[in-house]
Amino acid sequence: MTGFAAFEHGGNIYAAAGELGLSPEAVLDFSANINPLGLPPGLKEQLASLLDGVVHYPEPEAAELRQALAASHGCASESVIVGNGAAELLYLLCYTRKPRRVLVTAPTFSEYEKAARAAGAEVAYLPLAATDGFALHWEQMQAALAATDMFFLCNPNNPTGTLLKREAVLRLAAEAARQQCFLLVDESFQDFLPEQKKYSILPDLPRMGDQAAVLRSLTKFYAIPGLRLGFMAGDAALIQELTAKKDTWNVNFLAQQAGLWALRCSDYQQESRAYVAQAKQALYAALAALPGVHAYEPAVNYILLDMKQTGLTSSQWRERLKRRGILVRDCANYVGLGDSHIRVAVRRQDENERLVAALTAELTK
Fold this sequence. Notes:
Elements: H1 13-20, E1 28-29, H2 43-49, H3 63-73, E2 80-83, H4 86-97, E3 101-106, H5 111-118, E4 122-127, H6 138-145, E5 150-154, H7 166-178, E6 182-186, E7 212-217, E8 230-234, H8 236-245, H9 253-263, H10 266-288, E9 294-295, E10 302-306, H11 314-322, E11 326-327, E12 329-330, E13 341-345, H12 349-363
Parallel strand pairs: 1-11, 3-4, 3-5, 5-6, 6-7
Antiparallel strand pairs: 2-8, 7-8, 9-10, 10-13, 12-13
Helix pairs in contact: 3-9, 4-5, 10-12
């Protein structure tokens, strides 16, 4: 599936609110995977106090934020580039490296395919089967790498929630390098994991040369998607090349300041991880208990649901829940999923209970 319809995202709360005749605040958005605890404490006041700063140009390379990110994640600042959201860096990477054929898993985050095609690349799919929990199989992956020169790996994968441990990703990276295939590991949701050391390859990048990089998002964990903020870490020569080809002022002043503030909020970070770890399991158990609903066990703050046994399609579920003021992600446009899957975010307990109640009411009509 290609074309604009294939790359639709969740999170369009303003359009839904207008259609329903509600204020955006009255709509529960389970279609976007944002930290349920909301903004870090004090961030709103901090940004308000800095509004006068928008009369000046932002730092063109976000030097202070790059240094803070490097210190926070144990890498060198010259190995970090900051973007207007992680998605901007996907496009920048593809435009810069100019891959001929890009490998993506199916299903996975659609922006990988969109960025690859925008840069003129062919896209190959590595199918993941629902029957074995969307697992990535080594032999299948090896064969697919041989015919491609760039591989986007989402870990944990969006929307399936499957998660590879660090050792598995390092083995994959070594194989990709052997086959001269560049590996981009998207760790955008790993901030939600209590034990990131088991999964992130960020500390290993200095030993991996110029054939691998890691992408991270700050918008999801720190609940600032409207500001757009992400970063990529990799070989210093690659980062220098990307920096030379990006827009000079690609990250605005307030986004840079929000990132600096958020990185200092250690209590908020710990509270968020602890909350999501508990809430995702509670919501998963409640959803899995619903008749006809198959829930895939989550790794972070979103859950994939197979609704086939309910007798309704994903688009029908999207519309029924929208009429109740609840948005969910219709996954029919994910390559490899079909029209029976929806994805829901993990939100606050009362909101999660409202979702379960709405599903229950629809199931018992």
